[in-house]
Amino acid sequence: MGDAIGWRKKFAVLIPSTNTSVQPEFDDMRPPGVTNHISRIRIPNIALKDDADFQRLITLIADAQDQAVDSAMSCEPDRLVLGISAETFWDGLKASQDLKKHLLQKTGLPVSMGSEACAAAFAALGMKRIAVITPYMPVGDRNVTRFFEESGFHVMRIKGLKCESPVKIAHVSETELRDALLELDGDDIDGIVQVGTNLAMARLAGQAEVWLKRPVVAINTAIYWHALRESGITDRMSGFGALLEKH
Q1: CA gyration radius for the chain?
Q2: Which of 73, 114, 161, 198 has the fewest beta carbons closer than 10 A?
């Protein structure tokens, strides 16, 4: 007999300890029979004033990640889901592939992560020319742009919100995100993507597709969609945009 509540799949979800958005947004998208089991990557809530601070944050996450993976594995999950964004884009496509390979070798589990999930979402939605919202400092924006360009997409515009700390990322309001969407929109793009898993934008992205009349991909939606679909779960979920409703 399988797990009484997670009888379809148990997802081990890695998130930085400063992240307060992934867990509630993933739970909102959870279909019956799927359970999310959070393992926190322990990092301090450091001030983010410049590129050097942001690089230090990436190093702190990378250094603490495997310990969180080990903790997650004790619940015998079916899939590893990275509720982390910047690390999966860092240093381009090959580095992202190497990260996934490392996690596959360490756990023996299939892996869903933001970089690959976004690329899959763009393919499903017919997006080649994109605009991007991030909570990052410029060094983070450069790494995101590099990954997408190396993956065959064209970044027409990118807006980094330069949030002051990892926790402050979750304090960005829907009004600020809406203003950023309107600033980035244009006839030269196929859609908009938001990265940074602590930006709470899953529901707003679905709403924005109505008034922008183009795909708007929130990275938490893309990650969870990828985890579900790659696990053979095809349930359609309303309220989060076309990706979960139609694909």
Answers
A1: 17
A2: 73
Contact 41, 8 (CB under 8 A): no
Question: What tens digit of pLDDT does each residue of 6-18 get?
Answer: 999 999 999 999 9
- Those residues of the chain that have pLDDT short of 70 are 1
**Of 3.40.50.1860, 3.40.50.300, 3.90.1030.10, 3.40.50.620, which CATH number belongs to 124-220?**
3.40.50.1860
> What are the residue boundaries of the structural domains of the chain, listed by start?
9-115+221-238, 124-220
Angle subtended at Cα 117 by Cα 241 and Cα 140, rounded to the nearest 5 degrees: 100
| CA dihedral over 191, 193, 199, 203, signed as positive or negative | positive
Give residue-wise pLDDT tens across range 94-118. Answer: 999 999 999 999 999 999 999 999 9
Q: What fold characterizes domain 9-115+221-238?
A: Rossmann fold (3.40.50)
Report the interhelical angle of 92-107 vs 51-73 (nearest 10°). 20
Strand-pairing partners, residue 36, are 11
Q: What is the pLDDT of residue 236?
A: 96
**Per-residue confidence (pLDDT) for residue 1, from 0 to 100:** 67
